[in-house]
Structure formats: structure tokens, C-alpha cells
């Protein structure tokens, strides 16, 4: 039964993942009450709900990968695993009584601005909702990326993407092809390897995989952390310092040169077979693509039932998979470890600007641009979390919290001053993005010699932030109304 609401909310938040939860917490804390959160699934958690593949976990230490307002002493590893992160997000939602603000199984279909009434019309799977302002907290890694391959429909076996893992599929004794060697694949390959009769790993580009300084935290350790919160705070601060150091290196690639050399030396210790070592040695500077951390990936590749195919997959012919070098292999199962549609914010497929144009259409021949990853030209009263050019090698949670602080500051100013419409000034946006692109040229993301998902089809880096996290947080401290056209 579809409902058409007549109530015009102050704000509608789209998505109840990490950013949506942080937004609800912040608005409640500020006494900003007239809002709801729309969530397409039946539980919170976003990417941590959708990705449940074996071995799924975080590559930022748990002490930092948690909300500043709700540290947890329950982590059983230095780097938390997916089930623990998901239950943490559910616990936080319950602890701060945020469930009453979330409408589940309610998917946004389209968002259009009504210039005459000065409101957003959100068409959802449960009817039309209206709001004075909208916050899109849908995240950059939500839509699985599936390659368009010749013959894909002719495959008769089991086939699924890592972000939509089929837990009912029986992998025991099967010949399995894994396509891709990105962040998800290096986590699930070691879990799948012991089950498989034969495991073929298709690698288009060798990634940098560094050792993960992980360790188990037993009940005693958890008890100590609970009793002495200062330990967690110190731990959080020291991890932040380490990540600041990594970020400094990514912005100044010369600093990373010794690490490139060390990492190549380390591969000699990790992999005995010369051909395999050559095949997994990256041909670009460390940090150019996302840094990956694992202790069990290289050992898994060296097992007798595993073959690394250092080529992309180009065709599927019935149950035969064909590599770019012409090699053909019979398989029973294909697992896509091909990542996500990150080339542009996926929400762009559902949001229309003031000219009535879908954002994806608008971005097709250019690249997405936002002010501080938050405000987009032609989208009045709308804010994006983790939008273009805001990724820093750090905890997504920290970045999202800083951004939400900025947005909620703006929402409160709008309410107090009776501002009906707020839109980023074109010259502010242009100047900001000119500086971003100028400074990003010298970072490892652009100068490291790789093709990464940070660069879109136009060859432009639309994802990374070229400065420090400290600078980002300073700019997000308060929303300056002078940067916006306020009506």
C-alpha cells in the first residue's frame, strides 16, 4: 500500500549506513527533530550489511573505525570483522534510540526539486515524501560492479558477486574462478581456497598487499579497555597519527620511495616461486591504488590447488572461462571480486538538478564536482556525504562525522535565520575544485603510474582529497553562509 505524506519534513536523510546513523545522532543531539531516515533494506549498516562474504573485515583499526561518540570495548581483533562491525552499528542505533526515525524497506526512486514551493519531492517505493532539505548518506561503495562480458549468460554454474555472496552455494570440491584481486578478493580468496578443488585467480593488475598488524583481543584485554577508556583514546590517537603519516606520504610520493623498495624486498621473503613473485609484483608506486593489508593472501596463492592468471577475463563460453592471453579453463563457479560502481556517486542515477537533468547525465561528459564533497551546483538545500574529492586514507567514519557536523550546522542556521533556499555559489565551487585538481596532480594517486578507480573515464581524479585530514576537518568546522546563495 503506497502512502502519500502531506507532512513536509525539515530534512529527509537517505540511507541508514554509517553516515545516516551519524546524521541521526547529530540531529538528535542538536534538538533538530523534524526529520526521517529512509532505508531501502530491512536493517541498518549499509556496506557492512551488504558485504557478508567470508573473511570480510575492515582495513582501518577498529579503535578508529568507530563513532567518536560511542567507542566500543567489544572488538575481538585490532581490525574488526564484518559481523562485529554490523552488530556495533545496530547497537549504536538502539543505544541512542535512532530506530524510531528510520523507515525500512523504503527505497528512494527519484528526488526532484520544486522551485515554486521550495521543497524536495522524493518518490520512494512507499509513495511521495516532501522535505525542505535532503541529506544523501548513501555512500560511495553501494552498487556492485559487474563487467559486461561476451557469453556471460551462457554460464551454467553458480555465479555471484562478493557483495551479494550466495551463502547457500556449495563450494566444496568445486573448480572456482575468482575475477579480480581488489580489497574484497584478497579477503575471501584465503577463505575459499581450502574448500576448492581448483581455484583460478584472474588478476588484471597486481595490487600492493602489505602485512596486516592484526591481533586477537581476548576477554582480559577487552575488560582492561572497558575499565580504562584512556587506553582506547590513546590507541585511537596513535592510529590517527600513523594514518596521518601515510597520508603525508601519499601527498609526497618521494617519501614513499624507500617503502616501495622495502615492499619489493618483502615479496622475496613472502613468495618463493620466482614466476609467481614476478606476477604479483605491482608495476606502480605504492599508494597509487588503494593500499591492501592481509597476512593470508600470499600464502593462499601458493597452495597446490591455486593458479594465478595474471590476465583479465575476456569471455565466458558455456562453463569455460577465457583469459586475455587466450588461456581456457573449465570451471563450476564464478565469483566476481570486481568491486563497486565508484566512478561517480551512485545516487546520481536518482537525483535531478534544478534544470531537471539527472546528475549521471550531467556528469557523463564532465566529472562530478562538489564543495568539500558536500554541496553540488544546481542542488539547492541538498547535501551529500562522502561525495566527490573527499577521500583521505583514514576512517570513513571520521570523515563522515566531520561532514555531518558541517551539514547540520548549515541546517540549524537555515532554520534559525528563516533561509528558504541555500545553494553553493558557482565561483566558490569553481575556485575550490581548481585548487583540488591543481594540488592532486603531484599526489601518488595521479603521479604513481596506475589506473585506479580514483580516476574516471575523463582521466580526472574525482575521489581523493589532496591535503591533510586536519585541513579537511578545519574547513568542515562550520558552514560559512557567505559561500552560499541564501534566499
From TrEMBL:
<dbReference type="Pfam" id="PF00743">
    <property type="entry name" value="FMO-like"/>
</dbReference>
<dbReference type="GO" id="GO:0050660">
    <property type="term" value="F:flavin adenine dinucleotide binding"/>
</dbReference>
<dbReference type="InterPro" id="IPR051209">
    <property type="entry name" value="FAD-bind_Monooxygenase_sf"/>
</dbReference>
<dbReference type="InterPro" id="IPR036188">
    <property type="entry name" value="FAD/NAD-bd_sf"/>
</dbReference>
<dbReference type="GO" id="GO:0050661">
    <property type="term" value="F:NADP binding"/>
</dbReference>
<keyword id="KW-0274">FAD</keyword>
<dbReference type="GO" id="GO:0004499">
    <property type="term" value="F:N,N-dimethylaniline monooxygenase activity"/>
</dbReference>
<keyword id="KW-0560">Oxidoreductase</keyword>
<dbReference type="InterPro" id="IPR020946">
    <property type="entry name" value="Flavin_mOase-like"/>
</dbReference>
<keyword id="KW-0285">Flavoprotein</keyword>
<protein>
    <submittedName>
        <fullName>NAD(P)/FAD-dependent oxidoreductase</fullName>
    </submittedName>
</protein>
Amino acid at each position: 500500500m503506497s502512502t502519500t505524506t502531506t507532512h513536509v519534513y525539515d530534512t529527509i536523510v537517505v540511507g541508514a549506513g554509517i553516515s545516516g546513523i551519524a546524521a541521526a545522532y547529530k540531529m538528535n543531539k542538536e534538538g533538530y527533530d523534524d526529520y526521517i531516515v529512509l532505508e531501502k533494506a530491512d536493517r541498518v549498516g549499509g556496506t557492512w550489511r551488504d558485504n557478508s562474504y567470508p573473511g570480510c573485515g575492515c582495513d582501518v583499526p577498529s579503535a578508529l573505525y568507530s563513532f567518536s561518540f560511542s567507542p566500543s570495548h567489544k572488538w575481538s581483533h585490532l581490525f574488526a570483522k564484518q559481523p562485529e562491525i554490523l552488530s556495533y552499528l545496530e547497537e549504536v542505533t538502539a543505544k541512542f534510540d535512532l530506530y524510531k526515525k528510520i523507515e525500512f524497506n523504503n527505497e528512494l526512486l527519484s528526488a526532484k526539486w520544486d522551485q515554486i514551493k521550495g521543497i524536495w519531492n522524493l518518490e520512494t517505493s512507499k509513495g511521495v515524501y516532501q522535505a525542505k532539505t535532503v541529506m544523501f548518506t548513501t555512500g560511495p561503495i553501494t552498487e556492485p560492479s559487474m563487467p559486461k562480458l561476451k557469453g556471460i549468460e551462457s554460464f551454467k554454474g553458480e555465479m555471484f558477486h562478493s557483495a551479494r555472496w550466495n551463502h547457500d552455494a556449495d563450494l566444496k570440491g568445486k573448480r572456482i574462478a575468482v575475477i579480480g584481486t581488489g580489497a574484497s578478493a584478497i579477503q575471501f580468496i584465503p577463505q575459499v581456497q581450502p574448500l576448492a578443488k581448483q581455484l583460478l585467480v584472474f588478476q588484471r593488475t597486481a595490487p600492493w598487499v602489505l602485512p596486516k598488524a592484526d591481533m586477537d583481543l581476548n576477554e582480559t584485554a577487552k575488560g582492561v579497555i572497558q575499565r580504562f577508556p584512556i587506553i582506547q583514546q590513546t590507541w585511537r590517537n596513535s592510529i590517527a597519527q600513523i594514518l596521518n603519516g601515510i597520508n603525508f606520504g601519499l601527498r609526497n610520493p618521494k617519501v614513499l620511495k624507500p617503502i616501495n623498495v622495502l615492499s619489493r624486498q618483502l615479496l622475496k621473503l613472502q613468495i618463493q616461486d620466482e614466476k609467481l613473485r614476478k606476477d604479483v609484483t605491482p608495476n606502480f608506486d605504492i599508494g597509487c591504488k588503494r593500499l591492501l593489508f592481509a597476512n593470508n593472501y600470499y600464502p593462499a596463492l601458493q597452495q597446490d590447488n591455486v593458479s594465478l592468471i595474471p590476465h583479465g577475463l575476456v569471455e565466458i563460453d558455456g562453463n569455460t572461462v577465457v583469459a586475455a592471453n587466450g588461456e581456457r579453463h573449465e570451471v563450476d563457479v564464478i565469483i566476481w571480486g570486481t568491486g563497486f560502481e565508484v566512478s561517480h556517486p551512485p545516487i546520481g542515477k536518482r537525483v535531478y538538478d534544478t534544470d531537471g537533468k539527472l546528475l549521471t547525465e550531467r556528469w557523463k561528459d564532465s566529472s562530478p564536482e562538489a564543495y568539500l564533497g558536500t554541496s553540488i551546483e544546481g542542488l539547492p538545500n541538498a547535501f551529500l556525504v562522502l561525495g566527490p574529492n573527499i577521500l583521505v586514507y583514514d576512517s570513513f567514519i571520521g570523515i563522515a562525522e566531520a561532514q555531518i557536523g558541517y551539514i547540520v550546522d548549515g541546517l540549524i542556521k537555515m532554520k534559525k535565520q528563516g533561509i528558504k533556499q541555500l545553494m553553493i555559489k558557482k565561483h566558490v565551487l569553481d575556485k575550490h575544485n581548481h585548487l583540488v585538481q591543481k594540488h592532486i596532480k603531484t599526489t601518488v594517486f595521479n603521479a604513481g603510474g596506475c589506473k585506479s578507480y580514483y580516476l574516471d573515464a575523463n582521466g580526472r581524479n574525482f575521489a581523493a582529497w589532496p591535503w591533510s585530514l586536519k585541513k579537511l576537518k578545519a574547513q568542515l568546522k562550520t558552514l560559512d553562509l557567505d559561500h552560499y546563495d541564501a534566499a
